[in-house]
Design a protein that fits this description.
The chain has 464 residues and is an all-alpha fold. It has 2 domains: 195 residues, Clc chloride channel (Orthogonal Bundle); 206 residues, Clc chloride channel (Orthogonal Bundle). 68% of the residues lie in helices and 1% in strands. Strands 1-2 form a two-stranded parallel sheet. α8 packs across α9.
């Protein structure tokens, strides 16, 4: 009894020692003007980053509509327009903005590397590159190329966000890396109208952890950027709503087939993209390295032929076909998945700036639809389409949580939460047996662009 009596005052003293003084805490917080200035600057640039993605979305939508109008005017016109546009975009990119090539995600990851000195971060992320990225990707969509705008949104928003560094107080707790993470994730949040996906993308791809002292501000910036898209486009899902009433045991085998099939196909697709972009000793890689503009023209011509054969099904990011599948229209052209994979591969290989998020979702949706028809589960086609989108995206970028959350935002109801999560993890696992993570490897290749005299001597750039 005596021991218990002595223990109570000690516990009480310990508890009182950690209780904050409300008045003092408020006074101390409000008196730190640097902290409040940092918050105001970061949130203001978060709004600017979100609006930049909104502008990018609008411009790219206009470009897609313009190409569709040209195709309706003359189905043969892309045979001239697409290769010329592709060649011109590659020439402009290589001549004026080499840092804007590709998806944009590897550039942001490279800028976060400790190998990159502050004076060289502009090689990968800057306001100038953000403007170039917006125009070049929109030009690719105007040319009918099978590219997406979501990955480029990461580089665009990061370029806007990192510009806030010059306005922050010197002793601000938020450093340049925090701004890049917030900007890159804000690009995903605004592009997909899904702030939660942006937060998970920041943790899963851009950084393995968020610093405790600035994590709240970073998350607030990501959410605020996403709200800019919501305020302009409304609270609608990116591809509409998938209505899945309930799942039964009859969905188990088709679901497994879809997840494993997407894992295999996504792993092969990721490996093919890496092999093509990084080059080799084969004839096509040597031709691409020696005559990049001519190679781009040939890729553009092949893409135009694919569009002619598929009657436009391989044009652009595949948004319209994906939305049609989500809404229950399963009338896909023959060999849609194969033709879209080839069209996306050629567009990326050509060297035109563009992403692979939306094309991957389109391919995954097509695989889910095909398996639904092959297994005669058309009543549950919506579930297999959702699984296919999640699994293929997770297999390509090997970021299963981000892929799961992006598609989960589209599902009307919670009946598929566990199924989508399992599909993403399974497909990502299968993909890792075939390919290394694409963005990490391409980020290492980006580091090879650093001049030899600026890289840290202890950490030379990778040759990958």
């Amino acid at each position: 009894m005596e021991g218990q009596h002595d223990a109570r005052p000690l516990s009480h003293e310990h508890h009182e020692h950690h209780e904050p003084d409300f008045i003092s805490a408020v006074r101390e917080d409000l008196s730190d003007w640097r902290q409040w200035l940092s918050r105001a600057v970061v949130l203001a640039f978060a709004i600017a980053a979100g609006l930049a993605v909104v502008l990018f979305t609008w411009v790219s939508d206009q470009a897609i509509s313009a190409f569709a109008a040209m195709r309706s005017w003359s189905p043969w016109a892309p045979l001239i327009w697409t290769p010329c546009c592709t060649a011109a975009l590659v020439w402009v990119t290589r001549r004026f903005a080499p840092g804007a090539a590709g998806s944009g995600i590897p550039q942001v990851m490279a800028a976060l590397s400790t190998r990159v000195p502050a004076s060289r971060r502009g090689l990968f992320v800057s306001l100038r590159l953000s403007i170039a990225k917006l125009l070049l990707v929109s030009g690719g969509l105007l040319g009918g190329l099978a590219i997406g705008r979501e990955g480029p949104s990461v580089q665009i928003a990061a370029g806007v966000m990192q510009h806030a560094q010059r306005w922050l107080p010197r002793r601000s707790a938020l450093n340049h890396d925090g701004l890049l993470v917030a900007g890159g994730a804000a690009g995903i949040a605004a592009a997909f109208n899904a702030p939660l996906a942006g937060v998970m993308f920041a943790i899963e791809e851009l950084t393995r952890k968020l610093e405790q002292r600035s994590s709240g501000l970073i998350i607030a910036a990501i959410v605020l950027s996403g709200l800019m898209a919501v305020s302009v486009f409304g609270n609608a899902s990116y591809f509409g709503r998938l209505r899945v009433d309930h799942l039964t045991w009859s969905h188990l085998l088709p679901g497994l087939l879809t997840a494993i099939g997407c894992g295999l196909a996504g792993g092969v697709f990721s490996r093919l993209l890496q092999r093509s972009l990084l080059g080799g000793d084969d004839r096509f890689s040597r031709w691409r390295a020696r005559f990049p503009v001519r190679f781009a023209f040939a890729c553009g011509l092949a893409i135009a032929l694919l569009g002619l054969v598929s009657q436009g099904a391989t044009d652009g990011s595949g948004y319209e076909y994906t939305r049609g599948l989500v809404e229950g229209h399963l009338d896909l052209p023959v060999l849609y998945v194969t033709l879209r994979i080839v069209a996306t591969w050629l567009a990326v290989w050509s060297g035109v700036p563009g992403g692979i998020f939306a094309p991957s979702l389109a391919i995954g949706a097509g695989i889910g639809s095909d398996i639904a028809q092959l297994t005669a589960t058309t009543e549950g086609a919506a579930a297999l389409i959702a699984i296919g989108m999640t699994a293929f995206l997770a297999a390509v970028n090997q970021a299963p949580v981000t892929a799961f959350i992006i598609v989960m935002e589209m599902v009307d109801g919670h009946s598929m939460v566990l199924s989508l999560m399992a599909a993403a993890l399974l497909a990502s696992l299968v993909s890792r047996w075939i390919s290394v993570p694409i963005y990490h490897r391409l980020a290492q290749a980006q580091l090879a662009r650093l001049p030899a005299d600026t890289a840290e001597p202890t950490s030379p750039p990778s040759r990958a």
